[in-house]
Structure formats: structure tokens, C-alpha cells
Design goal:
With 730 residues, the protein is of the alpha/beta class. Helix content is 28%, strand content 18%. It contains 21 helices and 26 strands. A six-stranded mixed beta sheet has the order 11-16-15-14-12-13, with helices on both faces. Strands 4-3-2-1-10 form a five-stranded parallel beta sheet. Helix 2 (38-44) packs across helix 14 and helix 12 packs across helix 13 (323-333). The chain starts with 24 loop residues before the first helix and ends with a strand.
């Protein structure tokens, strides 16, 4: 039997302990929870999209809803909606605060993935900068702009680890390495949430999609996932653990199943691991209709069954399916769902709202962010774009001379604005993007020849007239993002044919590739004099590109994912584990695993060139033995800028546990250090290696740190470096 509390009267009519700011949050939460009816508790777990203060007035006033997301639909990242309307947010909030029985405010969510009004590079591009502070600053600006518009919750960062560039959502990811994704994701959390969640200009972050979504079969979105808990713990859960440790307020469940159990019904991973083992006291939110999709996945008979399974698994908020609103109260009354589970979910939602300060400040500011915040925002967008660029090849053509002669800028991206923003840019405006054509024309005036490439025969004529060709190729954002997977990871149809024709003329050609994923660029590398990966770089695409091409900025990015030789090589990454019949890279040409091609990637994880050269000295270790408890080893290496220009070296530390209870990666990124060195300068990259960096989950899913040998390698990427063998001792 469920005992309901007595009505507390209309909003504002009685003293409410939960409104006393001086009380501890937990005390306020329990005070409010004790006053809530079962229907009101269920209401906090119910989320719909695009809540309307008029159409949904009765639902809001009854306490039947706790949150809403502002989105066009299930795949909102592929669309542009009417944007965020502050007056509509405040109107709905006014109903909740002033007309509902307990005055519980709503929380408004929005996909603020890589910027709000100021759009930065796609997350995969930001990850290519290997820069935690840059990640924090971009997230902080996005939060400030979004919160000014009334958004209190973003569904980012995406922390799915993937080796599968066919999957369109790699554009939203932070790379293939758990350490890289984890540290950058934690920085995003700190940027979104600030020093204290609820401070001015902050929003609640959401680590998604827990867990294994990046393993969808064949790169097909929403596909099933075949993986065991050990691989999940040692690779895919690690970025989420880092986000939770950084204080991430919410976590989103993944669409997929994990070895047959859909994540929205996965009690083991959501409740037992995330909530209980890790101590996560925030909110677990469903993905779009994730609870309802349990029926389609064949594990729930109907929405009632789906609601029972999801609440038991640990899903606190049901996004848009309506299953909780329709069935939770009935399930509790029938004794099929313990009231304690509903209490736990409602408690977590109320706790989030109190931590955000929504009870004290429920309304959006009176001045919405209707335009880009200002010059400082654009400067940060330009810095982020330039930092994301990765130079893949260069025969000396770059940087361009101050007076390079006639430069042909050709290709479908020449005049583009919106296409350079990338996927999931709901509030960016294409007309505000500085295009490559505009930036190059401003730099070269009459020496810039602009061609959109629509007529390839005319393009060939212009190539002959120009002294150098800048070919802008790659993917439109509609080729990446949610539900936008591909079977072929080459350039879009027709582009390679045009590049071949331009290269045949014999004039210098620089190829800039705009993309949301790693691509097969083998022939492009052979045709071009230089190749630059520019991702989808955001608001300041054109100026950042031109400054980089002319050497005002040196390319500083490094690949956050392996670029495979072909689609047939997938999955391909730095996460490979040893087999029973190993081969090393030196044997690939004579004993490789393929008869018709090499296995080793041409563009490995962590690789990227600059406009200078770096040489690495011998590895120096403070000791060759490291005590298991409390020990550490200082690993140092001197890096010399042996070129003629300033440049940034990203020095990477990899480890390999030689003998372990389970197979461990042949090389696992453990740390990195950035050194910015003048020509001729020598810098020292220093790492402090601890036993914890060699820890892993064993066959019994226990975290293990054990004595034994480990290989330590330091170098410029995952394919080369200087190594030493150390021993962890008892």
C-alpha cells in the first residue's frame, strides 16, 4: 500500500523547508520528497520534447513533468529547428513554479555539442588538438551562451570509444583512446559545469552513451553490440569513469544492447556498476525513446513491461516514450515496482535541480544570446579551428609564400558557411561563418581565383592559369552524425576523379579535407603536394585555414583516431591486443595478415606533421623498478626542434603490460605532453609513471595492479618511439 502525503496547498502558501538555501542539499531533497505524491514523483521522471506552456499547461501545473528537451525530433542533430525561445521557456517555468502544488521548477535540455551560437570544430576535431584547457574553454563559452538562452542541461560530452569510422557518430566522439577521451571529456564537464554546478553561465553536462555504443556492428547506427564486460571495463567505461570523477551531473544510457541485454534494461551496468560501484549520485537519462524501444528490441512485451524493466535497471528519466508517465504509478500500486525505485529516481532529479540552483533562480535571463557573443568568442573559435587541423603530408609546398602568385581556391566548400559547421549545430548560423573564399580573397585580393568546382572542365582551365591550387574536398555534414553511417570511407563520389585530373596537369596542389570521420586517403596522399585535415571547423573556418596555410599558425593537431588504409581494414586502431601468432610492423610486407595489402596503417593514431621537424633523444628513467605500492618512475626525453620554424610537439607515452591476467593492448596511451619550441630549441617532456597507469580489470572483473614487466614507449605517435622495459615490484 502506498501512503500519500497530505496536500501542501497551492504554490507559495506554506513554509517550505526545501526552499531554505542554507540547509544541506540532501536535507532539502528529502524534505521535498516527503511531501510529494506518487504521481508527482513519477512526474519528475517524465520528459517530453518542446514543452508548450499553453498546450501542456495542465500537465505542468499537475506536477506531471519534470524536464523537457528542445529538439526537432529523434535525430535533431541532422536538422535546424526554430531555435531556443527564452520567452517560451520562462512561460512554461512560470506555470511550474507558480501553479504547481509544490512549485518544483523544470529543467530544459538542448544538444549543445560543440558550441551553441559560437560553433567550434566538431568534437573529433577538438580532440585532434590534444588540449584539455582548450576543451574546457570552448565548453565554458558554449555553456555561457546556452544558459543565457535558458538551457540548463546539455547532452554532451559523447564518450563512446570507437574503431569504426563508418559510424557517423564518430564525429561527436573524442577519439579512440580511453585516456585521451577521458581527459578531454572531463575537461568538457568542467567547462560546462564550472567550478560549482549552478554557478552563473553553467549547464549540467551529460556523459553519453553508457556504454558500448561505439561498437555497433559494421558501423551501422543502432546495431547490436557483441562485447564482454572485461573489454567494456578496460576500454569503453574508462572515459565515463573519468567524467563521473569530474562531477558530471548526468549520464545517458545507450540505444544498443550489450551482448543481448539492451542498455535501457541493463541493471548490472547501470545500477550495480555506475550507481552502486562507482557511487554516481546523479541522473541517468534515457536516450530518445530508449525505454519504448525495449519493445522493438524484443525484451519487453509492451510499454508497461518496458517501464518496469527500465526503472529497475536504473533509468531515472524516460525521454519522450511516455512509458513512465503511463505506467509507473500503476506498477507501484500493483506491487510490481518497489516505491523505493521511484523514490530513488525522483530524488536524483530533485537533487540535480537543487544543485543547479533552479529553486532559487528558475527563470532564464532577460537578454537571450541572439548573436555571437563578441570578438572574443570568434577569436576562441579561430584558435580552436586552427588547433584542430592535422597536416598529413607536405613536400615543402606549405606554408605558402607571402606572395605565392595566383592561388586557385576550388571545390564545393569554397563559398560554404553552414557546411563547415558540422553535425549537431542546432543554433549555429551558416551566414555568420567566414568562408575559405572570403578569407583567401581578403588575404590575396586580386591573386585569389575562386571556383566552386561545379564545372570540372572550367576548373581544369583555372588550374592551368594558377600558380598553385587549393582543393577543398570532403564530406558534407549530412554524411556524418546520427543515423548517417556509410559503407565506403573514401571521398564522396566524383571528388577523387577531379583530384586526379588536377594532379595530372602538374601544378602544385594542396588538398584540404573537411570531414566528420577518418577517411581512406591513400591515393589523395599520393596525388597531392600537401594534405591537411580540417574536419568541420566551425564559425571561423576560413580565417583559421588561411592563417595556417600561410604559416601564421603552424599545424599543431594530431590524429585522435587511426586513419585506416581501406574500409576492408576495419576495425583499425591503436587498441589492438596480442594474438597467439604475433607479427610486428617490420614483418608486414612479408608475413602480413592480408595477401593483397599491408596491415599497418599509413596514418596511425597520434600522428601529424608541423612546419618544422622534431628529433627525439634517448629515454631517461629515474629507475627501472617501481614499487607496487606508492611507487613511481620519472620518464623523460629531450625533444629538439631541428627545423627552422616554431612548432608544437605532442610527445606521447605508451605502456604495455607484458604478462597479465587478460590480454592487454600492445600499446596503450597513458599520457602526453605538449612542447612548443622555437627553431633549434630543446625541450624536455617529463612524465610521472605510476602503477595505477598499468592497472586493469582481470578475469573476475576486479581492478588489478600487479608486479611484473611493462614496456614503456615515448614518441610522436603510436607507430614509433623510444622504448624501455621496467619492472613493477612488490
Amino acid at each position: 500500500m502506498v501512503t500519500e502525503p497530505e496536500a501542501a496547498g497551492p504554490s507559495g502558501s506554506a513554509q517550505r523547508p526545501w526552499m531554505r538555501v542554507g540547509l544541506p542539499v540532501e536535507q532539502r531533497v528529502e524534505s521535498l520528497l516527503a511531501q510529494m505524491t506518487l504521481a508527482e514523483k513519477v512526474g519528475q521522471t517524465h520528459q517530453i520534447h518542446n514543452l508548450d506552456s499553453d498546450l501542456d499547461r495542465e500537465l505542468i501545473a499537475s506536477g506531471g513533468i519534470g524536464s523537457t528537451l528542445i529538439a526537432s525530433g529523434a535525430t535533431a542533430g541532422n536538422d535546424h529547428d526554430e531555435g531556443v525561445r527564452v520567452f517560451a521557456i520562462n512561460a512554461a517555468q512560470r506555470v511550474a513554479v507558480q501553479q504547481s502544488r509544490l512549485g518544483i521548477p523544470l529543467i530544459f535540455g538542448r544538444d549543445v555539442i560543440h558550441g551553441h551560437r559560437t560553433v567550434f570544430p566538431i568534437p573529433l576535431g577538438l580532440a585532434a588538438a590534444w588540449d584539455e584547457d582548450l576543451m574546457r574553454r570552448t565548453a565554458a563559452l558554449a555553456a555561457a551562451e546556452a544558459s543565457a538562452d535558458g538551457v540548463g542541461w546539455t547532452f554532451a560530452p559523447m564518450l563512446d570509444i570507437s574503431e569504426e569510422p563508418r559510424w557517423g557518430r564518430v564525429a561527436e566522439s573524442l577519439g579512440e583512446a580511453p585516456v585521451l577521451a577521458g581527459r578531454l571529456g572531463a575537461s568538457m564537464v568542467r567547462g560546462f559545469q564550472g567550478d560549482t554546478l549552478g554557478g552563473p553561465g553553467t549547464v549540467a553536462a551529460c556523459a553519453k552513451h553508457f556504454v558500448g555504443y561505439g561498437l555497433v556492428g559494421g558501423g551501422r547506427d543502432y546495431e547490436t553490440v557483441q562485447v564482454g564486460e572485461n573489454t567494456l571495463r578496460n576500454i569503453h567505461m574508462r572515459p565515463f569513469r573519468a567524467a563521473v570523477q569530474a562531477g558530471c551531473a548526468t549520464v545517458m544510457a545507450a540505444f544498443t544492447d550489450v551482448d543481448g541485454v539492451p542498455m535501457h534494461a541493463h541493471r548490472r551496468l547501470l545500477r550495480e556498476v555506475l550507481k552502486d560501484e562507482w557511487g554516481f549520485d546523479g541522473v541517468v537519462v534515457a536516450d530518445w525513446d530508449g525505454v519504448g524501444q525495449l519493445v522493438h528490441q524484443g525484451v519487453a512485451a509492451d510499454l508497461r513491461d518496458a517501464a518496469a524493466q527500465a526503472i529497475a535497471a536504473g533509468v531515472d528519466i524516460d525521454m519522450v516514450s511516455g512509458a513512465y508517465a503511463a505506467h509507473l504509478a500503476e506498477l507501484v500500486a500493483a506491487g510490481q515496482v518497489p516505491l523505493a525505485l521511484v523514490d530513488d529516481a525522483a530524488r536524483r532529479v530533485i537533487r540535480l535541480k537543487m544543485r543547479q540552483g533552479l529553486f532559487e533562480n528558475p527563470y532564464a535571463g532577460s537578454a537571450p544570446c541572439g548573436s555571437v557573443s563578441g570578438p572574443e568568442s570568434r577569436l576562441l573559435a579561430r584558435e580552436a579551428a586552427a588547433s584542430s587541423f592535422v597536416l598529413l603530408s607536405n613536400n615543402g609546398t606549405l606554408p605558402l609564400a607571402p606572395n605565392p602568385g595566383a592561388v586557385l581556391v576550388t571545390g564545393p566548400f569554397a563559398h560554404e558557411g553552414a557546411a563547415l559547421l558540422g553535425t549537431w549545430t542546432l543554433d549555429g548560423r551558416g551566414e555568420e561563418v567566414a568562408s575559405p573564399a572570403a578569407a583567401m580573397s581578403a588575404r590575396l585580393a586580386g591573386d585569389a581565383i575562386i571556383d566552386d568546382g561545379r564545372f570540372s572542365d572550367r576548373t581544369m582551365h583555372l588550374v592551368r592559369q594558377a600558380d598553385i591550387t587549393l582543393a577543398l574536398v570532403g564530406e558534407h555534414p549530412s554524411r556524418s552524425g546520427e543515423a548517417h553511417s556509410v559503407a565506403d570511407i573514401g571521398l564522396p563520389p566524383g571528388q577523387l576523379e577531379v583530384l586526379r585530373a588536377m594532379a595530372a596537369i602538374g601544378k602544385p596542389m594542396v588538398v584540404v579535407v573537411f570531414t566528420g570521420r577518418p577517411l581512406d586517403l591513400g591515393e589523395v596522399l599520393d596525388l597531392a603536394d600537401a594534405v591537411l585535415i580540417a574536419w568541420h571547423p566551425g564559425l571561423e573556418a576560413g580565417p583559421a585555414l588561411v592563417e595556417t596555410l600561410f604559416g601564421d599558425r603552424s599545424p599543431a593537431g594530431r590524429l585522435p583516431m587511426t586513419f585506416p588504409r581501406s574500409v576492408g581494414h576495419l576495425p583499425s586502431s591503436s587498441l589492438a591486443r596480442p594474438t597467439g601468432r604475433p607479427i610486428d610492423a617490420g614483418q608486414d610486407q612479408v608475413a602480413g595478415r592480408y595477401l593483397d595489402t599491408l596491415v599497418v596503417p599509413r596514418l596511425p593514431f597520434g600522428s601529424g606533421l608541423t612546419y618544422t621537424r622534431f628529433s627525439y633523444g634517448p629515454l631517461r628513467l629515474s629507475a627501472l623498478q617501481m614499487p607496487l605500492h606508492g611507487g613511481s618512475i620519472e620518464v623523460a626525453i629531450d625533444v629538439t626542434n631541428s627545423g627552422e620554424r616554431l612548432g608544437r610537439a605532442v610527445v606521447q607515452l605508451y605502456v604495455h603490460d607484458v604478462v597479465a591476467d587478460v590480454t592487454r593492448p600492445l600499446q596503450e596511451l597513458a599520457d602526453w605532453v605538449s612542447l612548443v619550441l622555437d627553431a633549434g630549441a630543446v625541450g624536455t617532456a617529463t612524465f610521472i609513471l605510476t602503477p595505477e597507469q598499468l592497472s586493469y580489470y582481470d578475469r573476475n572483473m576486479a581492478l588489478r595492479i600487479e608486479p611484473g614487466q611493462a614496456l614503456v614507449t615515448v614518441g610522436p605517435d603510436a607507430a614509433c618511439g623510444v622504448s624501455a622495459l621496467i619492472t613493477v615490484t612488490n
